[in-house]
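User: Sequence in, structure out. Go.
Assistant: Echoing your sequence, followed by the structure tokens.
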Amino acid sequence: MRMIRRMLACLALAWGLGGCVSLTPQQCATADWYRLGHDDSARGAQPRIGRHVDACARAGIAADQPRYAQGYRDGLDLYCRPQVVMSLALRGEGSPDVCPIDQRAGLLPYHRAGRQVLDATRAVDDLALERGRLSRELGRDDVKPERRQAVIRRLRELERDLDRAHHERLAAEHRLVEYQALLAR
């Protein structure tokens, strides 16, 4: 039972943090530290060198922190551009917080525009899923009359909510197009 709990904890941590152990001993031995740093920053991720150092130390291997740091700095040159920040935000990835402080304020509107489209799309999808679930429930013969009335009321609310969510998504998409047009100039 204890082993299962540990495995579940590790899986939860892996899902939330991207892995219980950042690198295996074999990966530590053959790591391209520059590439690891570069890849982390090029996708707008916070530096993960601390996790790499810990994982490799357990294997008796020293991480090349200066090479990682150089790769991370160089990767920021790719990520810290409005189009990239916006594009990754549309997928729920990256953060302008990793960029140099003097660039953050200029990148934040692009990140926000991408995230607003993503969040609005997710809201529409969630509402549509609920509507589908309730519609299927309403189609069953075993639904009690009081439950049927509650489902009908909720479906009416969902239609209003979906209408509002669609408008919010369209507005977010419009803002995104405006920002893309600014970049095309």
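User: And one key feature?
Assistant: The chain has eight helices and no strands.
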